[in-house]
């Protein structure tokens, strides 16, 4: 085990080279609905229990199932209303279980990125080969069912190994060359994109995905009120919008249909979306677009700046 | 380091629909549109839990939410739960009568046995009674011996039917926890609908070995215990959330047909003097809308069933 994963160097949030998003936008704003499948009877993993009760664990399972049966279309209608394309963090087994949902997202040209096979299969304890197979399976599944070359990764249930980011990038290259596997949502260290050091040396970037704005963290962990969460979304945006004048920032709202689409919560979410998209200098976009734009325009400069600052320390 | 068996990467259920055969996969937007009686849009289902938490809780295989948490004898939780059945419930009755609410009472059979007075009040009111299992420490759970569970279901239903002189068609398990056999056992003992699977907003057909069973999802996310004692929001926040939910559901009925607003409440939570006014506020608000139909669980279910063919 290491003291630090070694993915990036310290890079202070001051005096960075200026990022300008398309059309002078100050904030790149994206919404990442997690569309997940949790199993009723997942196999045991010695490092993490999928459910607190013995199977069948109804409270957790039925709530997630509600997200697919009821919640999905509610959130989708809302994103349509505010012209937001979702960037889907996908439990790729869902392509088989619920193809109707995949079709609805395809019709809207939403982005699909990998969130593993099931959200009840953890990376913990996998050999490098097993993890590579799992990641490859997930990326091939997305390609087969949507025609998209998967660019991004969020490890299933945020379960990682020391190899996760390397493997994702390498499988992406093997399957799709430079078009696949070039950004990660697994790191929460910054409000701007960051170049990531990988063993392959591939051009690869971490995109702010935000655990803080994640509805499941807000509702299940922090136990916030819906209106309190809506207010926090606006305040998070306000600050990033101000700072984005100096250099472009990224705001992400990661959501889960089983949380944010509840009838008593969706209004507060809608108010936040209306507020954010009502600002002029906002680039409403997807995870892949942000990663691609950064790689094309700022990745090299950033590497130079990071290296220069490292040498002065 | 512990490694995983190769089966950890095999997915035998990875095919169309659910990963079990209890019900069909179906999105809410694809259902037949429902019209409630007299053109109402929202069926208001108020489910009141009347519960007995034994002081000598065993907690097998877990402690029910709301159960004892301190070393024996946990007098604080025992008596605070009991408060609901002595005091809080009478505040509920008054509120229901003021706002013409037709509640449904989910009763632990052991409570009906222990408090004949309350049982007779319920009988006299004539509201629908459903079974909430034997008591809050008699859980149904994965691995529970089927013979033992059959006995538990039978005893709960036989005694509650006898004490209340009602048919008892509905069921909600303590802690909404079930074993793999619970639905089959419920159907075998004359239950026609149960409320534990909260994966939908409308009723749906549930497969059992013999007979018929309908799932009638009773929201956990909007219940008083979950919002006030688990999420630690105020009673006013609970009322805000119910009102926000109502506005959203009413809007949804414009394109998708009738909806159900299910309120699962506990007299030991909202029956407190400082919280009861928020229940009253919510009932006043809801019944102030002409689109609302307050009805028992069975009435809602039967109306839904009558429009399925």
What's the gyration radius of chain B in Å?
20 Å
Distance between the termini of chain B: 57 Å
| Average residue pLDDT of chain A | 97
Percentage of residues in strands of chain B: 5-15%
Rg of chain A, rounded, reads: 19 Å
Shape field of chain B: globular
Distance between the termini of chain A: 26 Å
Name of the CATH first level of chain B: Alpha Beta
Fraction of residues in H or I helices of chain B = 25-40%
Shape of chain A: globular
Low-confidence segments of chain B, given as residue ranges, are: none
Tally of separate helices of chain A: 11
Write the CATH architecture name of chain B: Alpha-Beta Barrel
Q: Biggest β-sheet of chain A, characterized? A: 5 strands, parallel
Report the sheet with the most strands of chain B, covering strand number, pairing sense and barrel closure: 5 strands, parallel
- In CATH terms, the superfamily of chain B is Glycoside hydrolase/deacetylase
The total of beta strands of chain A comes to 9
**Average pLDDT level of chain B:** 97
Report on the architecture of this protein.
- The complex is a heterodimer of chains A (313) and B (309).
- Chain A contains 11 helices and 9 strands.
- Chain A is of the alpha/beta class and 313 residues long.
- In chain A, strand 1 (27-35), helix 1 and strand 2 (87-90) form a beta-alpha-beta unit.
- Chain A is globular.
- The two termini of chain A are 26 Å apart.
- With 309 residues, chain B is α/β, with parallel strands linked by helices.
- Chain B has one domain: Alpha-Beta Barrel (TIM Barrel).
- In chain B, 39% of the residues lie in helices and 12% in strands.
- Chain B contains 10 helices and 9 strands.
- In chain B, strands 1, 2, 3, 8 and 9 form a 5-stranded parallel beta sheet that branches.
- In chain B, helix 5 links the parallel strand 4 (170-171) and strand 5 (193-194).
- The longest helix of chain B is centred in the N-terminal third of the chain and has 24 residues, at 75-98.
- In chain B, 49% of the residues are buried.
- The mean pLDDT of chain B is 97.
- Classes of the chains: A alpha/beta (313), B alpha/beta (309).
- Chains A and B meet through helix 1, helix 3, helix 4 and helix 9 of A and helix 7 of B.
């Amino acid at each position: 085990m290491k003291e630090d994963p070694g993915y990036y160097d310290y890079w202070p949030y001051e005096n960075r080279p200026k990022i300008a998003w398309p059309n002078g936008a100050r904030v790149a704003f994206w919404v990442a609905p997690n569309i997940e499948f949790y199993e009723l009877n997942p196999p045991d993993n010695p490092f993490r229990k999928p459910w607190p009760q013995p199977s069948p664990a109804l409270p957790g399972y039925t709530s997630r199932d509600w997200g697919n049966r009821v919640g999905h279309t509610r959130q989708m209608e809302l994103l349509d209303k505010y012209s937001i394309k979702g960037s889907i963090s996908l439990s790729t087994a869902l392509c088989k279980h619920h193809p109707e949902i995949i079709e609805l997202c395809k019709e809207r040209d939403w982005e699909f990125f990998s969130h593993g096979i099931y959200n009840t299969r953890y990376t913990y304890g996998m050999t490098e080969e097993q993890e590579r197979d799992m990641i490859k399976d997930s990326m091939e599944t997305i390609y087969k069912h949507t025609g998209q070359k998967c660019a991004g990764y969020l490890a299933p249930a945020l379960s990682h190994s020391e190899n996760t980011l390397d493997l994702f990038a390498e499988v992406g290259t093997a399957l799709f060359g430079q078009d696949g596997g070039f950004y990660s949502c697994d790191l929460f260290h910054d409000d701007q994109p960051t170049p990531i050091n990988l063993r392959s040396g591939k051009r690869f970037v971490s995109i702010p995905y935000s655990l803080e704005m994640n509805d499941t963290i807000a509702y299940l962990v922090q136990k916030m009120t819906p209106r309190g969460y809506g207010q926090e979304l606006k305040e998070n945006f306000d600050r990033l919008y101000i700072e984005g004048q100096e250099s472009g920032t990224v705001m992400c709202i990661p959501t889960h249909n089983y949380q944010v689409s509840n009838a008593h919560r969706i209004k507060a979410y809608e108010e936040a979306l209306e507020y954010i998209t009502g600002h002029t200098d906002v680039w409403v976009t997807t995870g892949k677009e942000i990663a691609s734009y950064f790689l094309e325009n700022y990745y090299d400069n950033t590497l130079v700046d990071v290296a220069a600052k490292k040498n002065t320390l | 380091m512990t490694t995983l068996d190769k089966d950890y990467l095999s997915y035998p259920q990875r095919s169309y629909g659910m990963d079990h055969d209890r019900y069909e996969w179906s999105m809410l937007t694809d259902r037949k549109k429902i019209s409630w009686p007299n053109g109402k849009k929202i069926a208001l289902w108020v489910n009141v839990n009347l519960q007995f938490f034994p002081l000598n809780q065993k907690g097998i295989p877990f402690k029910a939410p709301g159960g004892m948490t301190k070393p024996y004898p946990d007098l604080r939780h025992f008596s605070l739960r009991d408060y609901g059945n002595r005091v809080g419930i009478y505040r509920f009755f008054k509120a229901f009568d003021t706002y013409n609410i037709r509640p449904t009472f989910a009763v632990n059979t052991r409570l009906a046995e222990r408090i004949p007075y309350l049982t007779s009040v319920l009988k006299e009111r004539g509201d629908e009674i459903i079974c909430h299992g034997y008591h809050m420490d008699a859980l149904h759970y994965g691995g529970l011996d089927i013979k033992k569970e059959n006995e538990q279901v039978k005893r709960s239903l036989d005694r509650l039917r006898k004490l209340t002189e009602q048919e008892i068609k509905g069921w909600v398990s303590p802690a909404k926890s079930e074993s793999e056999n619970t639905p089959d056992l419920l159907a075998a003992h004359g239950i026609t609908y149960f409320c534990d699977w909260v994966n939908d907003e409308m009723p749906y057909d549930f497969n059992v070995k013999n007979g018929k069973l309908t799932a009638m999802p009773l929201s956990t996310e909007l219940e008083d215990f979950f919002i006030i004692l688990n999420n630690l929001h105020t009673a006013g926040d609970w009322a805000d959330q119910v009102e926000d939910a109502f506005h959203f559901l009413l809007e949804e009925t414009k394109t998708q047909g009738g909806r159900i607003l299910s309120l699962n409440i506990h007299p030991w939570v909202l029956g407190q003097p400082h919280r009861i006014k928020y229940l009253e506020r919510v009932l006043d608000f809801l019944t102030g809308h002409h689109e609302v139909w307050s009805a028992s669980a069975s009435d809602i279910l039967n109306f839904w069933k009558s429009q399925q063919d």
